[in-house]
Amino acid sequence: MTTSGKDPVLTSFEAVAGQEFDVVIVGSGVSGAVIAKQLGARGCRVLVLEAGSGNDITVADYEESVQRFYGAQGKDNNSAYAKSRNAPMPRDYETRKLQPGQPNADGYLVQMGPLEIDSTYTRVLGGTTRHWEGKALRMLPDDFRMRSLFGQGRDWPLAYGDLDAHYRAAERELGVAGDVEDQQYGGLDFGPGYVLPMRKMPLSYLDRMIARDLDGMEVTLSGETFPLKVRSTPQARNGVPNPAYDEGRGYKPVGAVSTHQEDKGERCQGNTNCVPICPVQAKYDARRTLYAALETGNVQLLAWSVASRLEVDGVTGQVSQLEFKTYDDPDAPGHRVGHVRAKVFVLAANAVENARLMLASDLPGSSNLVGRNLMDHMYLLTWALMPRPAGALRGPICTAGIEDIRTGAYRRHHAAVRYSIHNDGWGWATGSPYSDLEHLVEHENRFGAPLRQGLIDRVSRQFLMDCMIEVLPDESNRVSVDPRWVDQMGNPRPVISFGATPYTLETAAFSRRLSRRIFQRLGAEDHTHYDPLAPGYVSHDGEGYVLRGGNHWAGTHIMGTSARDSVVDSTQRSWDHPNLYLAGAGSMASIGTANTTLTLAALCFRTADAILAGLGTHAPASTTTGARA
Amino acid sequence: MADMLDGFLALSEALTGFTGQRLRGTGQAEAYLATATGIVGEGVMRDLLLAAAEARASSGGDTEKHEAELRRLVMSDDRLGPVARNIIRMWYVGSWYQLPKPWREAHGQSPRDHDHVVSPISYTEGLLWPAIGANPAGAKPAGYGMWAMPPRIAPG
């Protein structure tokens, strides 16, 4: 490890600027960390650039984030993380209703509409896995063949089976808790005898209450009948290791990330705060993988450094060097500009930032598809009160969902969907429990014992079901850049154009109807309503709905079979620039109904293999120990 | 201000429905009294505690009468009611909320009168969550798997 940075695991501007590495990776989130770890373990000399702070690798650093969350009046999904004017990040509260022709440039993202999207990401060490919830579902085999099977969207240049080994690697790396027996639907196949590293999270009291009345309810779609069942959700959260894992060798959970020995992070304690921060580090975040990468001795981390431009050789198309800007103060203007060279460059800064960097480097791709096909899941929220206290606001945010209609012939006509049962009450939809307290105190004029009873009646009974709806790749949904909008450093800000198509909206309408049936079956009091003045409000067939973003940005460097119709190949390598990989959900050709992280981690294992194979001809520097700086 | 603490706790018991021991156990009583007094001024706070004491005294231990007296003397009072409601909010979620505009215009502005969490610990000591057998998001978890059990909603 270098010793010249502010921390033993960090390197410095002086040590890095002008140097050449085997591989330079932009971004320390899960994509970058997986690739860095795999390459570092094989002796490649790797530099990871992180735009955010590097002071985030000890338990004490982590505790600062927890305290920042406790002290934040607005507890949005980035509230635990330090703001920086030099590496700004989107906040959901910056989203507002757009007027036609008037973009919203109040936050970091410039929103052009027509649909306002309240998705965010986190520009800190470990990336958006710092605030992710941890759901780790595989995509379904059908999701990879959308065009062939349903005449919609695009096929991937690889099949589910091609990713199986990489899914297994990702499930190990992320530490997935789940029972394969509960994942037998929609053609999901884990292979004979396979078990996940840890047992499923116990279902919540609410899940069990719902399952009792709901299991067996039938839904008919396009002539196909699906019996519904409440199923445990696989998630990257430490639980009870499965002794059968790895052919009986078992699994040792990875605890808290720290430069010192720490007894934390062993098992989920039910803090109900997976987003924005698990206070005990039971949830996977990419710092675990990053730390393992640094421990190989071959990976260096340069923090407080924003990648600003890729420079390309006009003849070969190879990326020759990367320009970056290093700052000392997170907020004050001022930075130094440096360059690094490498045999291979990897952009792993998320689907929005990867596209932004390519476009800021005047590299829209020979297909002109960089930044296009922007996808994210659209969430329709539905909420009700259970007939009696159901134990809301306890446990991981979700422990179970309804998966049975994640695929079917209906996808010829409208989008796929899955449903999650929320253990955290109505918070996402209504601002509960704060809004409930406000209602009881300010409108019902309650205090004392009647106030306590009111909270039991109004909060403990809450059941929110989110409807996670697929969005197809559409070239008009895009990230672009515009010289009118730059950040403090002069880097272009992402400009987002996004709209929902009838394919997605039809499933929103179907899901609202289904939620009514579910509430009727449970005897639950339906409180769902959609405010026409809310951002994300859309009309379809005369009914209004509010769509929320899923923070699952994808598609902006879409994967395909040729340079004409895609940006990267099935290893995430750029068609135009042979020594450049664009890694992460941006490569995905569809998003189905799985949270993107597990799949993008699997893709990055595949990419690491491809990079190693490519570098093999140049003999990876396996003797290098990494003490470079 | 120390002489006001007992009165503040007695009022807080009536406002929150939690016992004085439970309230003291949060360790937040002094901080909430200081926050409220610092914003509304000692005069308002002393009048609030006097009104609460009068409500207690005149109800002779009858809960219904006590609640009615609190509504008459405190909750429906333009000057004292909004302050009492903010004390409830502090105990339940650890935050001070800006007083209503008419209150500020009539009784004075304070630079500290804006929405804020009193302290990181005041959030984790919020009583809303124990009131429903839950934990504040991100703190005081019940332990692995306890979410599978029915909520333990206990008086206290």
UniProtKB/TrEMBL annotation, chain A:
Any one Gene Ontology MF annotation carried by this entry is: flavin adenine dinucleotide binding
Q: Which cofactor does it need?
A: FAD
Which Pfam families does the entry mention?
Answer: GMC_oxred_C, GMC_oxred_N, NAD_binding_8
Alphabetic keyword roster: FAD, Flavoprotein, Oxidoreductase
Where the record annotates domain Glucose-methanol-choline oxidoreductase N-terminal, the positions are 263-378
Any idea where the Glucose-methanol-choline oxidoreductase C-terminal domain is? 473-603
The record's section on InterPro entries has: FAD/NAD-bd_sf, GMC_OxRdtase_N, GMC_OxRtase_C, P2Ox-like
What PANTHER family does the record tag this protein with? Answer: PYRANOSE 2-OXIDASE
The UniProt family comment states:
Belongs to the GMC oxidoreductase family.
According to UniProt, the name of this protein is: Choline dehydrogenase-like flavoprotein
TrEMBL record, chain B:
- The organism is Roseococcus suduntuyensis
UniProt protein name:
Membrane bound FAD containing D-sorbitol dehydrogenase
Output the superkingdom of the source species.
Answer: Bacteria
**What does the organism's lineage look like at the top?**
Bacteria, Pseudomonadati, Pseudomonadota, Alphaproteobacteria, Acetobacterales
